Amino acid sequence: MNTLWQDIRYGVRMLVKSRGVSLLAILALGLGVGANTATFSVSNTFLRKPVSFPEVERLVMVVNRAPGQVQDWTSASPADFLDWKEQAHSFDSLTAYSWNDVNLTGAGEPVKLQGFRVTPNFFDVLSVHAMLGRGFISGEDLPGQDAKVILSHSLWTSQFASDPQIVGKTVRLDGRPCTVVGVMNQEVNFPFNAQLWMPLTFSAQKRTVRNEHSVSPLARLKSGVSLTRAQAEMNAIQQRLTSAFPASESGWSVMVQDLGEFVAGPGRAYTLLLLVAVGFVLLIACANVANLLLARSTSRQTEFAIRRAMGGTRWHLIRQLLIESALLGLGGGAVGLLLGAWGISLIQANMPPEVARYIPGWNMVRLDREVFLYTLGVALLAGIVAGLVPAFQGSGTAIGETLKEGGRSGTASRSRTRLRNAFVVAEISLSLMLLVGGVLISKGVLSLFALNFKFAPQSVLTMRVVLPDSKYAAPRQRSDFYDRLLDQLNHVQGVESAAVAGLIPFGETSDAESFSVEGQPKQLGEFRNALIDSVSPDYFRLLHVPVKEGREFSDRDSADASRVVIISESLARRYWPGRSPLGHHLKTGEDDSKNPWAVIIGVVADVYYDPWQHDLPAAIYFPYRQQPHRGSYIAVRTSGDRRAIFPAIRQAISRVDPDQPIYDVLPFDRVISDQILGLSYVAVLMGVLGFMGLVLSAVGVAGVMAYSVTQRTHEIGVRMALGAQSRDVLRLFVTGGLALMGIGIAIGLPAAYVLARLLASLLYGVQATDLSSFTLGTLLLSIVVVLACYIPARRATRVDPMHALRYE
Amino acid sequence: MEPLIQLRNLEKVFEAGGSKFFVLRRITLDIQRGEFVTFMGPSGAGKSTLLSIIGMLDGAWTGEFYFLEQPVHKLNVKKRNELHKANIGFVFQSYHLIDNLTVFENLEIPLSYKNVPHKERASLVCDALDRFNIVGKKDLFPNQLSGGQQQLVGVARAVIQNPKLILADEPTGNLHSAQGEEIMLLFKKLNEGGTTIIQVTHSEKNASYSDRVIQLKDGWIVSESATAARVG
Questions:
Q1: Closest by CA position to A429, among listed A147, A777, A110
Q2: B148: distance to nearest CA of chain A, Å?
Q3: Which residues contact A161 (CB under 8 A, 6 or more apart)?
Q4: Which pTM was predicted?
Q5: In this complex, is the C-beta atom of B202 within 8 Å of any C-beta atom belonging to chain A?
Q6: A305 to chain B: which residues are within 8 Å by CB?
Q7: I want to staple A423 with a disulfide (CB 3.0 to 4.6 A). Which of A287, A540, A624, B160 is the partner?
Q8: What is the pLDDT of residues A285-305, one digit of tens each?
Q9: Do B90 and A6 touch (CB under 8 A)?
Q10: Could you write out the DSSP letters of every residue in A658-717?
């Protein structure tokens, strides 16, 4: 212990003595560690703790995968859910939820709330209890018995002033009186950002529905049952269901997924990508520090030889050197903590609350104990990794030779030079991967922005309404509301046009639904679905979506008129390749559904709705009068300041229905940027990491070159004495640097291609074979590396031959 | 009593570019306990290499080498290290003190590698400082000492663990004559106290302090002679 303390003391003294090298190493490690700290704090919450329930590792989602789906998932049908519940033995219990946005009225301003319908055992499956009152009980899921509600803690506080007597009181949801039976504690806001829960009811008819996938089942695995075993059991159940109901079940499969992974969703892959990228930056920093330590260990060969001669073993020396590098790591850790804390606050400050609320665990992101321990661990590990090779190299000093008077102490051995070069090559390769990755992902995000600027979103204001069943149960009531609303809005001064749509690009997404094409019955196992939207006549014009064929909707397309539909270009190409789809018929639901057929009257350009989805979805548009949604977006194109016009819009809506809340009032460009924000974060972070990698590599290359110049001063002197010109010396060093760069690029490019393939599978608009990204990344790296070679090489040309020869 | 060191047909070869270069050839030599021996010879004769091999800093050689009757040629690296740590102290021409350690810490180094407990270490270092009259220098760094003082610390470091053998490579090479004489007298005193000493030197005067002079040339032992001191 004493010896260890002595080594630490000596290590500190060594670091202080060569404070230039130490500071550089601490800074390099600090950059790498800081990037890791910030990324880890976000990803730890996002990947490991997106939800927090007792024995959360036993909670799994049980969802469907439609034929052809590889990465995505689909909700389950009520009949399937009930069958699974009855037949599966892997679970303690199985529950289900479905989205149910409601309007709360009669308690001040009407507000739209994020609600969920859940089966009575929902909270038992999660193993949570109500803070006030109780959870749901059996029987409350029967139609007519379901006018019960459980409030989230945040809703109870914000809307009901934390009323301790709230249980038993009645609130009006969608105009319907519901009894509050409980209030959940602060930690429970699942699924997503649930504000309230109501019982999920299954009518006798609904219990047999297999074509409508509307519920999301969640289960608690029995103690000791693995996910694999549960998956195997569900596969067997699904096989039985497929045999029994081939028409609706063929090609469908069941996926049992860990709840945490499920909640993290598609962002998980990006988070892992960032973790790998920051790992690369740390490796580059380690390679840099290793090179610095190698250089320093060369100048300490005599000391090492003395220590060996005094009885020190190789292990003693390795321990001493590793302690020194671990101390550097700790220094880097301290810097990293500061940089990490700054990075976390920067990331948090730039995340709008309306986006943050949809990111699982976002409010838990902080520099907590786990992040601190992680930083400490990473910093120590980085220090030790960086010191490992120099320690083994340094401890292998030839003692007798070094201690001999005029021995070769202080000169770099060939193997040491090779090692230093190998580190530089590794840095260049890793940097190139980061750069190409950064360029690719930035291009992807930019292409998403470009795609959406086609909508000219800068003058569009959007908002949302959810019409309550109590007032707007009948489709005619809903379409009347929208008719009157559009009429009012079109009379507001400054409004150029107004439209209603169930979905808007990059707004809240909805599950795709199945549809049938007349004369083209669905093949067994074929997955045929599309986004179904209901839009007003001005919708396409307002968003500048070009009509490719046929006509737009008009006022003629009323509820009583024959049913019409407009389809997206990709859907038209798929079912009517090379010919016009106009006049053909399709309908929502399966072939045998009772939904009426609608004639195709137009084809519009494809619209990208969800940035997280890689494939362009097919879309089917109905006129809103023939299929009016409960929840809709209202889009208004204005000629002036969008915010200034809002009060007039609010009044127009109040004139139609004073009780009707509107929410998410946002400029359309903000809706788009909020949706792309997560990706933009990834792009910006990749860019920052690429830049950090580049700077660290440049420092690494410059360091190796500068060291090489110092080592070869005598050689330069001899060469110059023999007639070498400045340019010959310059060439000598720059060529060496370029050779390293060449090898680094040769290794880095194929590795970057592997990364590019991964990115291409994640993000729209990214091509693994995008030559321009590879060229740009390589060019950027080459320029920086050439500069990093040139500056020390210039110094070599200024060597005075006489001085250099005396120097040796 | 068996000699402290027995070398039998010891050879060291460098191979470069396919050809062999002999540094030491068929060295057969006994050194008795308590002897003071000098290796002399021109540069490149193999003196320092032989010293390194005897000091077990160099393991790449052939032949037989017995130290305290133990066959060094058969011992693995760990055993050789133990033998070296327990019995051998070094003194170098360039002193080879560690620049960043104080005099006290430099003296402590061999003891710490022998895992001597902290208290005992401190007491041994204090004894050495006292014995060599350098107590006032204990907190100074090597670059704050004169050459003679540095070599004094070097010798103190070599003897602090009471070695049976001291190996000194040109111990006075970097000192002026008065300082050199002081160091040689110190060696003589240590030798009289029973420590075996082997030195490499070019100086006839330094050699005269020893009992026996062994001349090397081109890796061969070319002559052995008792010195006047011995004869006298």
A1: A777
A2: 17
A3: none
A4: 0.71
A5: no
A6: 96
A7: A287
A8: 898 888 888 888 877 888 888
A9: no
A10: TT---EEEEEHHHHHHHHHHHHHHHHHHHHHHHHHHHHHHHHHHHHHHHHHHHHTHHHHH
